[in-house]
């Protein structure tokens, strides 16, 4: 028999409570990849990230800035210019992201098959 889960297993000081993004958060990982080659403006980011709304992209960028993954540089020009770039901390996540992408590539068939099997099974009753 498996031991029960402890109610205090996620201590407030636990590192998982400060993770900069959730596993599966699609926009943060995509923004990291967009900024890998250097600074980008908001409108440049919107090109490959066309499925994200401007509001959600702005929120993602703000949370990434809050977590120290990117910097926002505003230039006093006419018209004003703002660029986003990766910090050293943000760059350090690229190796982890590459590993996750490799894992997904290796296991894509298994993931697709599992999702298809889940969708095809009869609906469960109760909980």
UniProtKB/TrEMBL annotation:
InterPro entries under this entry?
HTH_HxlR, WH-like_DNA-bd_sf, WH_DNA-bd_sf
Is DNA-binding among this UniProt entry's keywords? yes
What are the protein's UniProt keywords?
DNA-binding, Transcription, Transcription regulation
A GO molecular function assigned to this protein is: DNA binding
Looking at the record, the residues that make up the HTH hxlR-type domain are 14-112
The protein's name in its UniProt record: Transcriptional regulator
Q: List the source organism.
A: Actinoplanes cyaneus
